[in-house]
Amino acid sequence: MTKRWKWLSLLILPCAAIVFALWVLPEPDTAVLWTDQPEFALYVESFNAVNDTYKIEFHYTEVAAQRLSVLPGTAQETPDIVIGNWIKSATTRTLFKPLDSFFLESKIDKAAFYPRLLNLGTIEEQQYLLPVAFNIPALVFIRANAQLLSNPFTIGFDEIKALGKAYNVERNGIYSRMGFSPIWNDEFLYVTADLFNAAFREVETAPSVVSAWSETAGDVTWNPEALEEAIAALRDWTQEVNTNIQAEDDFVFKYFYEPSAKLAMSGRILFIYMNSAGLFTLSQEQRSNLEFRWIAENNTIPVSEDTVYYGIYKRGKAKKAADAFTEWFFQAETQRQLLEISKKQRINETYFGISNGFSAIRTVTEQIFPLFYPSLLGHMPPSAFLSPPNILPQSWSTLKAQVIIPYLHARIRQQDTRPLERRISDWYRTNSGF
Predict the structure, then answer these.
(1) Strand runs (DSSP E) across 284-373, as ranges?
(2) Domain ranges for the chain
(3) Spatial contact of 99 and 122, defined as CB atoms under 8 Å apart
(4) Domain 31-135+305-386 falls in which CATH fold?
(5) Fold of 137-302+395-430
(6) Of residues 354, 328, 327, 358, the one with CA closest to residue 341
(7) What are the E-state strand segments in 240-367?
(8) Which has the closest alpha carbon to 204: 92, 279, 54?
(9) What string of pLDDT tens digits covers the 434 residues of the chain?
């Protein structure tokens, strides 16, 4: 052998050994799960207890979508599974692998999901994300007033206003009893805008081609005409039903030092707004005295924007473990067992249902949930009414709290008339981290 070949062999053999070692390196049997849903700690523990081949390592992170969006180009630890809110945004949803094989191989029943929630996880007709849990808005009242309502499932704005006005007790402009006010709950203001089709959503194309009726700022666009209609409706509501905003503020100042549920049970107010998670985590004693209806307009019940979705990171290392957990979790029987464990450990007193919401699997919500939440019997939300949220940017929860809600407050009170697009643009300039 010549010196040249000896030199080459010294170089090639170690490289070949490294390649071979990498080729035979076994795939990890433990998958890393990132989530902003603390309830998944219980679900991971349950999976690990019954699976002898694969394990899941639970990692809680405050905002999974934001942590995920900085992964490309970094050397930090990567997940195999990501579960949380806002992972459907343009900056994150392309980081997941398609999940259609679970349907094609009959590992997960595609038909078991609420179709409109499932469709929101698709990109170009491929399934990249699976829905986990969702919440919807409810109007709550004491059981003795149930006969006042016309429908056993839903209630609309006109009926809320009419019943609220009839319930009012006022003397010389001072209310000692008030049926309902939109300003009592910030989320109700947003639900109203949603039902008027304000249509907040993420900008995915150039603003000039989003829509002729859209307004755009940052990476958010919306329907300004519908938003103006919602604001006008909220103003009219106050004036028609409760005299003016000052009368509502005075009532709040005088009586709202007590929880709203207690005010309803005492007869001080007629209706309370809360979402389904808030309703079903009230104490059993409180819920036994309360009834509820889902808020709906034009046969539409808006699904909360913080719907939980599930994805498998396409650069994950423990693919088989991730697949095993995915197949296990999205079975109706698995979720029934998780609800049972949650009840035994009294976790259901803090978190509702599956991942603090209704399950995105219809059979679980419609057939199994009533076994654990008997008040759902006869009050199941009509599935055809459920309207999923638009895709929103990962910054949405903060943007909504710091800009959208304050804007609605100001417009209803006719204060600080800066346009919404300016407020959002200013917010993005001072929050470059988003």
Answers:
(1) 290-295, 301-302, 308-312, 358-359
(2) 31-135+305-386, 137-302+395-430
(3) no
(4) D-Maltodextrin-Binding Protein; domain 2 (3.40.190)
(5) D-Maltodextrin-Binding Protein; domain 2 (3.40.190)
(6) 354
(7) 272-275, 290-295, 301-302, 308-312, 358-359
(8) 92
(9) 454 444 445 445 455 555 444 455 688 899 999 999 999 999 999 999 999 999 999 999 887 767 776 665 454 678 999 999 888 887 787 889 999 999 999 999 999 999 999 999 998 899 999 999 999 999 999 999 999 999 899 999 999 999 999 999 999 889 999 999 999 999 999 999 999 999 999 986 544 434 445 677 678 999 999 999 999 999 999 999 999 999 999 999 999 999 999 999 999 999 999 999 999 999 888 888 999 999 999 999 999 999 999 999 998 999 999 999 999 999 999 999 999 999 999 999 999 999 999 999 999 999 999 999 999 998 988 899 999 999 998 889 899 999 999 999 999 998 877 899 999 999 998 886 55
- Residue 389 CA to residue 211 CA, distance in Å, equals 18
- Burial string for 23-43 (b: 16+ CB within 10 Å, else e) reads eeeeebeebbbbbbbebbebb
Threshold 0.85, pTM exceeds: yes
Give the side-chain half-sphere CA count within 13 A for 402. 13
CA distances from 277 to 131, 196, 267, 297, 357 (A): 17, 23, 23, 21, 6
Q: State both tokens at 281.
A: 């985590």
Place of tokens 């035994």: 344
CA distance 122 to 150: 38
Same fold yes or no, 31-135+305-386 and 137-302+395-430: yes
